[in-house]
Each structure stands twice: as C-alpha cells, then as structure tokens.
TrEMBL record:
Pfam family, one: Hyccin
Keyword vocabulary terms for this entry: Cell membrane, Cytoplasm, Membrane
Gene field: FAM126A
Localization, UniProt: Cell membrane; Cytoplasm, Cytosol
Feature: compositional bias, Polar residues: 419-430
Homology family: Belongs to the Hyccin family.
Any one GO BP annotation for this protein: protein localization to plasma membrane
Protein name as annotated: Family with sequence similarity 126 member A
Length: 430
C-alpha cells in the first residue's frame, strides 16, 4: 500500500472522531467529494494483513450505527469486497485475518434485524398477481382467463410472504454463514440505486469468483486466486443475480454478463431451480434490449418496457356489424360470378332468385317448389334440369362449380330442342 493512500485513510480515521453530533450530516455529504478515499479503503480491505484493517472496520461500523442514511450507504458500498475477504479467508482456513471483518458484518446484521425499539423486524413481500397490472405486464395483454369458481374466489387477493424474525448471531458458523450473508446482500440490494460503479464492479467480481473457484471454468477465466470450492446456497445466488441485473442495466455490461454466466454455470452444477429460473429469465429479457456500456453517469435504473394503459380498439376487431357486412359482400360476389358465367356461354340465361322461399315466381311464370333435399323445382317440366338450383346462396362456391356447368349445358340443350320443335318432356339426369 502506498504511503499516500495510507495518509488519506489515517486522516479519514482521525477527523470523524473529533466531529460533534451536529456536524455529522454535513460531514456525510462531503464524503463524496473525497475521490482518493474510496480506492484507498478498497486497498486496505483487500490486504488482509494491513494494520489499518481493524480501525477501518471499526470506523465503518460506527458509520452504520450512527443512523445517518448517507453514512450507512457509504459503508454498504464496501459490502461485496468484505464478503469476498471473509469467504476467501474461511476457504484458506485463516480465521485470524478475518476477525474484524466478521465483527463488522455481524454488527450490521444485528442492527438490521431489529427496529428502533429493539424488537425483531418481520419483512413482508407482496407477490405480484397476474390479474392486477404492474410495470411488467397488463392483464389485457395476457388474454381471457377462465372464470372458474377458484379463479373468482382468488380474484383480487394478494399473497404476502413474510421473512423473519431473524435470530441474533454472535459468531459465524458453517450453518449460519450464508444465512447472514444472504440477508446482508438483501440490505445491499435495497440500496442499489445509490451504489457507485466501483461497488457494482466489486459485486460482479464477487459473483464470478464465488461460483467458479475450484471448477474447470476458473482456468478459462484465468483467475489465480484460491482454488477451493466454496459452498453456496440457492438464496445467496438469487440475491447475487438481483445485483447483477442492476449492474447490467447501468453500464457494467461486460462484467455483468460474465458474472451472470458464471452464476448460471454454478446453478446448473448444483441444480438450484430458483437461481436457474431467475437467471435465465433475466438473460432472456436482455437479448432484445440495447445495453449501453457508456451510461455509467446519470440516473440509475433498470430499463422496463411499459405497455400503454390507454384502451385501444383494433381496426380488425370482429363485430356483429362486420360479420353482417361480410355476408352481404359474399352474396353480391356470387351474383356477379353467375352473370359472368352466363355471358361466357353465348346466350342470356333467365335470372333466378336463389334467396327467396317457396312461392317465388320465375320470369317464365313457373313457381319454385321446395324438394326434400332443400332444393326447388318448377311446376312445369319445360326447364328440365335447369330448375335444379339450390336455395342456399352458399351453393355457388368451389364445391358446386360442377353443378353450374351442368346446368348451363342443360339450358343450352333445352333452347336447341325448342328451336327444332321437339321439346323435352322428361327431367334431364345429371
């Protein structure tokens, strides 16, 4: 560690101890102007054998215990680096170098699980319902849902999931280590919008190192740190994915993509369904999104496409009026096709009204009588097969085109017979 960085850290340690209580808020606002302080503190945390590590951890805990939101967020930005120092020290079986880090993390955990009165807090989370709109979906876009008795009974009901109360911890053990670390990551994710780009990079590096250490992918990533496999839980990986998602949408595209792939790689090896579900969902949603790597400055947020809430009626909506108009257009097109076929035959065919009922009169004075099969025949036999016309206007489609051709031939034969004086008295067979 350079002497300049050591001097910056020592000055930071000394000036806070002399501050009165009335000047804490002003001091907290001035920390962001000290550009050399945060990199120097990262170097102290990464050097486990540094003499400044213990006073730095004590100072960070004093910041968090003060209750000032800006000082608490200043401490939280170092949480990913503190977690990695603790996990790497436990994997190397060197607990003496991580004693002050354990005390800091346990202190933050014990402060967060209780309220101002010292009572255990119970965190509540409302599970989104598909029947209610949100920034991620609208019920109208999903389609009609079956209104069953069970759906009606659960309509409008919101499911609430509770977390807690959590037990206070005095020391880290193999059983409670990731329970505490998962809760600390939950607190970190609650303040993601205030984290700097350096903190987000540290979170991505923590995710990759935890997931690939001791596995073949460690050689692909060319990481030469510890080679011991670290035990993880599904809940811990889900909290890591939540922070990675935010980092991906706020400038850390390269590191975030690698971290997400590494977490999914470890989730597949461990067969963690929760981490696989959340990670694959985020990875699928980012395929069509345009992620920019140069938007590290400015407002930080997760990009979400919101469906417009105004109701719109499609121009192609099927209504009773459109169906009625479609039927009339179809009938008119059928009449035009009949007239065109008659003109091609070289003669004028008497117009036959196929939309009428029994009792309609034909131009030659004969009436149409309905038959048992739904068709009509004239009173006289002079027309022969020409009277074999269906009353259904749908008869002029592709399936009955052959009947129309046969009808035209029979009419032509009838006219020729009338011209020669020998009219046919029998019914022509089709």
């Amino acid at each position: 560690m350079l002497a300049m960085d050591q001097g910056v850290v020592e000055e930071w340690l000394s000036e806070y101890k002399t501050l009165p209580d009335s000047a804490v808020s002003t001091y907290a606002a001035s920390l962001k102007d000290k550009g050399a302080l945060v990199p120097a503190l990262y170097k102290v945390i990464r050097e486990n054998y540094s003499d400044l590590l213990e006073p730095v951890c004590h100072q960070l805990f004093e910041f968090y215990r003060s209750g000032e939101p800006q000082l608490q967020r200043f401490t939280l930005q170092f949480l990913p680096e503190l977690l990695w120092s603790l996990l790497s020290a436990s994997a190397a079986r060197d607990p003496h170098t991580s004693g002050c880090i354990e005390a800091l993390l346990l202190g933050i955990y014990n402060l967060e699980i209780v309220d101002k009165d010292g009572q255990s807090k119970v965190l509540s989370f409302t599970v989104p319902s598909l029947s209610k709109p949100s920034v991620y979906h609208e019920p109208s876009a999903i389609g009609s849902m079956a209104l069953t008795e069970g759906a009606l009974a659960n309509h409008g009901l919101s499911r609430v999931v509770y977390s807690g109360p959590h037990l206070q911890r005095e020391t880290f053990t193999a059983q409670n280590r990731f329970e505490v670390l998962t809760f600390l990551l939950l607190c970190y994710n609650a303040a993601l919008s205030y984290m700097t780009s350096t903190s987000l990079q540290s979170l991505c590096q923590l995710s990759s190192r935890v997931c690939i250490c001791g596995y073949p992918r460690q050689q692909m990533r060319r990481y030469k740190g510890i080679s011991t496999r670290l035990t993880v839980t599904s809940e811990f990986l889900v909290q890591l994915i939540t922070g990675i998602h935010y980092a991906l949408c706020n400038g850390e595209v390269e590191l975030g993509s690698k971290a997400l792939d590494d977490v999914l790689y470890r989730s597949q090896l461990e067969l963690f369904p929760e981490a696989l579900l959340v990670g694959n969902a985020i990875k699928s949603s980012l395929r069509g999104a345009a992620l920019k790597s140069n938007n590290k400055e400015g407002a930080r947020s997760i990009q979400v496409e919101i469906t417009p809430t105004s109701s719109r009626i499609s121009r192609n909506a099927v209504t009773s009026l459109s169906i009625r108009g479609h039927r009339w257009k179809r009938h008119e097109s059928q009449e035009v096709s009949v007239e065109s076929e008659a003109a091609l035959g070289g003669m004028v065919i008497p117009e036959i009204n196929v939309t009428g009922v029994s009792g309609e009169r034909m131009p030659n004075g004969d009436s149409l009588r309905p038959r048992a099969d739904g068709r009509a025949q004239p009173d006289g036999d002079m027309l022969g097969a020409a009277s074999e016309v269906s009353l259904d206007p749908r008869s002029h489609d592709s399936s009955t085109r052959g009947q129309e051709v046969r009808r035209q031939k029979s009419v032509r034969r009838m006219v020729e017979n009338e011209g020669s004086g020998s009219a046919s008295t029998g019914r022509s067979q089709y």
